[in-house]
Structures are given as C-alpha cells and as structure tokens.
Design goal:
Length: 188
C-alpha cells in the first residue's frame, strides 16, 4: 500500500486528472460554485497530493471534491464510492489491534493504510456530511476516527446507512469484515 513510486508519470497524471474531472463534472451537487480549472491547477502543482488521490482511486475510493475550506482555500476530497472502497476492506482499526490478534490476522490496518496513502480517516461528522451528498454504504460499512477514550478500552467506531438513517456502531478494534473498509479525506 505504501506509495512505492514517488511520482506519477505524465501519462498517469493526465489519466488521473481526466478521471477526476469527469467525476467532478458528473457530480456538481457535491461542489456547487467550484470550477475545475482552479482545481486542476492546484493539483498539477502538488504531485504528493496527486499520489494520494491516485491511491484513493486505485483502491476504489472514487475521490471527489466535497467542499472548499474558506479559511485555508484548500479543496476537500472524500472517498465518494457508493460502497466502502473494495481495496480497503477486511482490515482492523490500527496497528495495536492488528498485533493483538492471535489468529487470522488481516494483512493491514486502517490507520496504517491511511498513513501510507497520505490521507486522513473520516470522522463521524465528516461521514455524516458525506451522507448529505448521497446514499453511501447501503450494503457495506466504514471505520471512522475513534475517540481515544473508546480506543483505550479496545473499541473502534464504524458507520453505515440503513433505513435512510446513518448509524454509528462499535466493534473491537481488532475485528475485520469483508464488507467493512474505510473512507478517507484529503486536503489540497
């Protein structure tokens, strides 16, 4: 999962930018009032963020802009795939949880994968914001950032959408399921 290539080839950059542009134009309700030319200029000048977006795309996240931070001027990308990204499922919450498993350890953890990709795990609040833009995780679920007091007790939080409602649940941080992954955010 670590970004082995420290940069994308020009062809890879162009392909990624075209994919992001197409998604941007198809889903204008997620970012009303923003123009792609400004986004593209920012992305072209930030190859590290392009690498992160490429990882988000390669693991099935379908990143798209969901806002603009008025204080910093940063574009905010979230994973907008309908279901939890396929390339980021069957992982426990963090390294401590992974190491605590005695049997059937997953290959990785959410927090390690997110760090390697250069993205942040969505918070519960961000997850709820995402759900205002569409119906996500109707069949899957996504880990979200867990408060330290819950994590210290061995738990972790995840969310999904059922019955037209966003639910927040808990599990042992060392648990993992084929239908649970994670969604990330990236500021550019």
């Amino acid at each position: 999962m670590a970004k082995g290539n420290k940069e994308l080839s020009r062809e890879q950059q162009e392909e990624l930018l075209e994919t992001l542009k197409t998604r941007f134009e198809k889903n204008m309700n997620r970012h009303e009032g923003l123009e792609w030319t400004s986004v593209q200029a920012r992305l072209e000048n930030n190859t590290e963020k392009l690498l992160s977006l490429n990882e988000m795309e390669a693991t099935g996240g379908e990143p798209d802009i969901v806002g603009l931070d008025p204080e910093t001027g940063e574009y905010i990308f979230y994973d907008c795939s309908v279901e939890s990204p396929k390339g980021r499922r069957s992982v426990c919450y963090d390294r401590d949880a992974l190491e605590a498993r005695k049997k059937h350890k997953p290959e990785n953890s959410v927090m390690d994968m997110a760090a390697a990709m250069g993205i942040e795990l969505l918070t519960e609040e961000q997850y709820r914001e995402l759900q205002k833009l569409g119906n996500f995780d109707l069949k899957t679920s996504s880990w979200v950032q867990t408060p330290e007091n819950i994590r210290k007790l061995g738990g972790a939080l995840f969310c999904d959408r059922r019955y037209d409602t966003v639910f927040v649940y808990h599990n042992g941080a060392d648990s993992y399921y084929g239908a649970r992954g994670f969604r990330g955010s990236l500021r550019v």
